[in-house]
Input
Amino acid sequence: MDRARVTDWVAAYERAWRTPGTDPLATIFTADASYLQGPYRQPVLGLPAIARMWEAEREGPDEAFRMASEVVAVDGNTAVVRVQVHYGEPTNQEFRDLWIVRFADDGRCRAFEEWPFWPPRSPDTSQE
Output
């Protein structure tokens, strides 16, 4: 993998999130892919389970959000991507996320791991 291919994969991920149904998932994940939604969560295993999770997690393909991403590193078939997402118009939820994506030789993801971070609930929680 290289940065351009990872950037293309991230764009395909976003397009899939915005597309009705889950058919596009087969173009970005292998049949036996694992999807870890957080460092202490149980992995979602296999494309059918990922599709069920995908539909359960999103409001629908017309969900209002803005997504920005930056490929931080690529080492062989592994990439790290920084993602920021703002949901709603106006924004009612946001988070920053680190993705660790391990790719199969065909460019589809075989292991996806995310580390999501949300802003503090109060303006200054460092004093608590």
Remarks:
- The radius of gyration is 15 Å.
